[in-house]
Specification:
The chain is mostly helical. It is about 65% helix and about 5% strand. Keywords: DNA-binding, Transcription, Transcription regulation.
């Protein structure tokens, strides 16, 4: 990625996006040390834009800066994963309930189309993962709380660091798809509290799949 290939926006933003994609693509694994000199040579840049990029990624939670040791790709502990799931469950369950209570049938057409994409991608892991995230973010967009959307987007970005993502577990894609089917039924029927419960169960099952634990989240978000 020579310097000449970078776009006209601030150089550090291009460098941050380059590193972000390397992290998400597991070219830089969680816990890996980021070799600044090597990256500068590969990208044909000085250390100034690289360090600015690392500050951006540190603010996003993707990179951890260690005194006198440099930058490392953030590792998520079991507690980190649980806490992220708990917050996502609370935020998205409430949003889903609001959508079920307020959205007109025509407004749900986008969600239905994304659900059909999930159905079509059940045998394609990466495509299913993308469609799953698109569905969740579209539901939040339909609810319309931009602060909720921002928080969830940040949490979902960091969750990509989880080495044991729930959708990696054998059989979890099929389980997740069935949970989405039930969610869509409740949403289309306008059943707010049932939608809330189903979304909470969806996250509880996702957490359980990361470690084979019983499907339960604290704070009232438990499996049905």
């Amino acid at each position: 990625m020579p310097q000449a290939s970078l776009t006209r926006r601030a150089l550090y933003e291009d460098v941050a996006e380059h590193l972000r994609q390397q992290i998400f693509g597991r070219q830089l694994e969680p816990g890996a040390w980021i070799d600044e000199l090597q990256l500068c040579a590969e990208l044909g840049i000085s250390r100034t834009p690289l360090r600015e990029a690392l500050k951006v990624l540190a603010a996003e939670g993707l990179v951890t800066m260690k005194v006198r040791r440099g930058a490392y790709v953030t590792e998520m502990s079991e507690q980190d994963v649980r806490e992220a799931y708990e917050l996502l469950s609370l935020l998205e369950s409430d949003a889903a309930a609001r959508v079920a209570a307020q959205a007109e049938p025509a407004a749900l057409a986008r969600l239905q189309a994304l659900h059909q994409e999930l159905e079509a991608q059940i045998d394609q892991h990466d495509a299913f993962f993308r469609a799953n995230e698109d569905f969740h973010m579209a539901l939040l967009a339909l609810e319309g709380n931009r602060w909720r959307q921002q928080i969830v987007n940040d949490l979902r970005r960091v969750m990509k660091l989880n080495r044991h993502h729930s959708l990696f577990k054998r059989g979890r894609l099929e389980e997740s798809l069935q949970e989405h089917r039930e969610l869509m039924q409740a949403l289309m029927a306008g059943e707010a509290e049932r939608t809330r419960s189903l979304m909470a169960r969806h996250f509880a099952n996702g957490l359980a799949a990361t470690r084979g634990a019983p499907a339960q989240l604290s704070g009232g978000a438990k499996s049905a």
